[in-house]
Write a structure and sequence with these properties.
Distance between the termini: 30 Å
CATH superfamily of the largest domain: Type I PLP-dependent aspartate aminotransferase-like (Major domain)
Radius of gyration: 21 Å
Strand order of the largest sheet: 2-10-9-8-5-3-4
Order of helices and strands: EHHEHEHEEEEEEEHHHHEEHEEH
Number of strands: 14
Bound molecules: 4'-deoxy-4'-aminopyridoxal-5'-phosphate
Helix content: 25-40%
Strand content: 15-25%
Largest sheet: 7 strands, mixed
């Protein structure tokens, strides 16, 4: 393959080409320092500049108000499933969770493993997670409410976020962070594995309201403690330096693209083209209730599993990768994250029309 492939992977996923080019240009000799970012001390002045820029850019791009801290952690979003209750769910308290799919379930399972109390206040499991529950009542004295903003496997997404009053709202934004403008002040804590919209795997972004940092008990492992990681500005131990550097470049790319308003408009346009193609056809069938559709992960079915296999194989022959649905649900899934260009989606839709003509 001479050209870069159209990458519809769910994660790790497409990165902006200009970011990769900058990484390539900087790889052997970063800004004339004679070494790669991978090879430099995490205590060096240069890396300190990189991590501070990454935090500053995160605040600028997301318009994070004062009183929040941005942490770069390890262990993926999966470690956050445990870190959240370890830090923020004290003995004798319980936490509310909304179960919208496989990742919510895993988050809930980690709380139970710790022997802590969970209230699942809403679930869409009755209809195979094809929608986002609209009504639920937050337990007034819950330690927090946890939601999964975008369900990567099922292709559902919260269109708006619930008002939780005094109960802190915690959100797993792994697969839709920075796909649109949000009001960060509504959230107590946002976490996201970087490998979909922000950079390579190995870094987890945690945005936490500073008053919560005080809640971390002393008897939890250091690497899970928001308090310690916060006090040390994410440099308690050796952080994933290269990943943080790439995140900084991705944030600069977001700014150059025109910020989150612009990205959201492009993301809406990409999603509309794809959903329109599904809706107008009797051959393709969407699996998500229209009011809950994700603009990041678009799952759909064909009339048979054989046709789905053929679709994935022929798409690959036509330069489109990663369209197979998650192994737990089957079907097709197109992940159209920030870095997937409009042209990739247009190419996919043209391919879908031709495939239907031949096989419909
Ligand atoms: N939450 C969501 C919404 C995800 O999509 C994923 C990964 N696909 C995870 C959590 C788990 O992330 P990680 O692999 O970084 O632990």
């Amino acid at each position: 393959m001479k050209e870069r492939i159209y990458n519809f992977n769910a994660g790790p996923a497409a990165l902006p080409q200009s970011v990769l080019e900058e990484v390539r240009d900087d790889l052997l000799n970063y800004k004339g320092e004679g070494l790669s970012v991978m090879e430099m001390s995490h205590r060096s002045k240069t890396f300190d500049g990189i991590i501070k820029d990454a935090e500053r850019l995160m605040k600028e791009v997301m318009r994070i108000p004062d009183g929040y801290k941005v942490l770069f952690m390890q262990g993926g979003a999966t470690l956050q499933f445990a870190a959240v209750p370890m830090n923020l769910l004290a003995e004798g308290q319980s936490a509310d969770y909304i179960n919208t799919g496989a990742w919510s379930k895993k988050a809930i399972a980690e709380v139970k493993k710790l022997g802590k109390q969970v209230n699942v206040i809403a679930t869409s499991e009755d209809e195979n997670f094809s929608y986002i529950p609209g009504t639920f009542t937050v337990t007034p004295d819950a330690a927090y409410l946890h939601i999964t903003s975008n369900n990567t496997i099922f292709g559902t997404q919260f269109q708006t976020y619930p008002d939780t009053g005094n109960v802190p709202l915690i959100v797993d934004m792994s697969s839709d962070i920075n796909c649109r403008r949000i009001d960060v002040s509504k959230f107590a804590l946002i976490y996201a594995g970087a490998q979909k919209n922000m950079g390579p795997s190995g870094v987890t972004i945690v945005i936490i309201r500073e008053d919560l940092l005080e809640r971390s008990p002393d008897n939890i492992p250091t690497m899970t403690s928001y308090k310690i990681i916060g006090e040390k500005d994410s440099l308690y131990n050796t952080p994933p330096t290269f990943g943080i550097y790439v995140i900084k470049l991705v944030l600069e790319w977001i700014q150059k693209t025109g910020g989150l308003e612009k990205l959201e408009a492009i993301n809406q346009q990409k999603a509309k083209i794809l959903y329109d193609a599904i809706d107008k056809s009797d051959f393709y069938r969407g699996t998500v209730r229209p009011d809950s559709r994700s603009i990041m992960n678009v799952p759909f079915r064909l009339p048979s599993e054989d046709l789905e296999k053929q679709f994935v194989a022929e798409a690959l022959e036509n330069g489109m990768l990663g369209l197979k649905g998650h192994r737990s649900v089957g079907g097709i899934r197109a992940s159209i994250y920030n870095a997937v260009p409009l042209k990739a989606v247009e190419t996919l839709v043209r391919f879908m029309e031709e495939f239907e003509k031949k096989n419909g």
